[in-house]
Structure of Tyr recombinase domain-containing protein:
Amino acid sequence: MLSKYAKKAMHNNRELFPGKVTAHVLRHSKAMHLLQSGVNLIYIRDFLGHASVTTTEIYAKSNPEIKRKAIEEASAEVLPDEKFSVEEKEDLFDWLKKSI
């Protein structure tokens, strides 16, 4: 059934179908779309019916955009919040200078 309708769709818009359309391709595409949308791997595992999340992690490993985002987020500059006002810092510096 899938093959029948995929052929009809390809006949109308071949450029939309770079390869063969199979149930596995649709399943893989749906998993990738869920992952790219930020859906947790546990939920994707359950959706796909995988016994282990390790199987589902294959999708995360195969997506370069997800890798890039993870590296970008991990390397983001982390700056502490200002805990002291300018006056408090000046008072501290004055106190330290007097202590020397």
In short: Residues 2-99 form one domain. The chain has six helices and no strands.
